[in-house]
User: Which sequence fits this backbone?
């Protein structure tokens, strides 16, 4: 029999909480179906909950790029609607993401379960999550549905990177105050965070009570990302002279810190370090992708930087498992 493993709060994390079986969980995500961290993590959480009997209804913005496999039509299942899409305005620099138009919380209840859920889960709350939290806190405490958040996206930090000075600092200040305003409310029972960096932000900047915080590890598929699947041929192609391979994998966008990475790579190129920087990823917005690639033009020309483009599955695994 497996010995129970407990987290920092003394809760057993080796077995699924029986209290969630058969419960109606309204899951609101700013992104669902696309290839990004929020969407992938949320998809795994949804699958896990449903596989253990939870009745999860997903609410997310419509992807106007049609880069995912979901329809904007509601999908009925077992007496409730399992997934619905909301309309909004696509972000110019990331059109697969949208700012959701105003929506009533009561309307979400009606379209999903026909009544209030037992629990609300907000994945990386922004335009949709903020609306839910604002309307929930305006209700009488006895009518407020318990709410949990997964704090995955540092909107304040992204804003400072994306916008030129002084607008970046102003946006960072505004977002940090807005996030703190929502997250500190008593209706938010638990806030999941992925890293100590995120925890420090939530505690020190957003001023959230540390008793609300819970570490949510993302984990690694060790069967897939296994050194046995390394590709010696690929290594020979990238580093024929045994160079040190530096590797990064993410969406090619300014908020991911590529300008800083380009500066660091340029500094390393001036040293005696023999390296190759391999960058895996792309962006649905071709203009944004080219802007990022343009930051590395001199290093690409000298062969120090290699862009592989957007890859998935076994090809991605063979790229990542052997970076010695």
Assistant:
């Amino acid at each position: 029999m497996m010995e129970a493993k407990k987290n920092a709060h003394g809760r057993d994390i080796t077995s699924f909480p029986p209290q969630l079986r058969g419960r109606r969980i309204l899951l609101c995500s700013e992104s669902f179906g696309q290839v990004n961290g929020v969407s992938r993590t949320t998809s795994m959480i949804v699958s896990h909950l449903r596989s253990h009997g939870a009745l999860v209804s997903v609410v997310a913005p419509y992807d106007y790029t049609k880069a995912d496999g979901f329809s904007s039509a509601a999908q009925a299942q077992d007496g409730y609607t399992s997934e619905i899409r909301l309309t909004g305005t696509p972000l110019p620099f990331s059109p697969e993401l949208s700012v959701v138009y105003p929506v009533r919380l009561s309307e979400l209840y009606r379209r999903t379960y026909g009544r209030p859920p037992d629990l609300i889960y907000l994945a990386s709350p922004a335009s949709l999550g903020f609306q839910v939290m604002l309307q929930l806190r305006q209700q009488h405490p006895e009518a407020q549905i318990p709410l949990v958040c997964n704090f995955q996206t540092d909107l304040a930090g992204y804003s400072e990177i994306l916008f030129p000075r002084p607008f970046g600092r102003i946006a960072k200040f505004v977002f940090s105050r807005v996030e703190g305003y929502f997250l500190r409310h008593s209706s938010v029972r638990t806030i999941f965070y992925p890293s100590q960096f995120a925890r420090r932000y939530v505690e020190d900047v957003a001023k959230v009570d540390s008793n609300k915080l819970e570490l949510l590890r993302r984990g690694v598929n060790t069967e897939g990302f296994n050194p046995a699947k390394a590709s010696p041929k690929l290594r020979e192609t990238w580093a024929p002279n045994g160079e040190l391979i530096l590797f990064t994998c993410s969406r090619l966008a300014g908020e991911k810190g590529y300008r800083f990475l380009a500066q660091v790579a340029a500094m390393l190129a001036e040293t005696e370090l023999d390296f190759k920087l391999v960058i895996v990823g792309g962006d649905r917005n071709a203009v944004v992708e080219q802007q990022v690639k343009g930051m590395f033009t001199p290093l690409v020309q000298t062969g120090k930087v290699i862009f592989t483009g957007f890859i998935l599955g076994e090809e991605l695994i063979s790229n990542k498992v052997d970076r010695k």
Notes: Residues 233 and 240 are 10 Å apart (CA to CA). Residues 69-73 have pLDDT under 50 and may be disordered. The two ends are 38 Å apart (CA to CA).
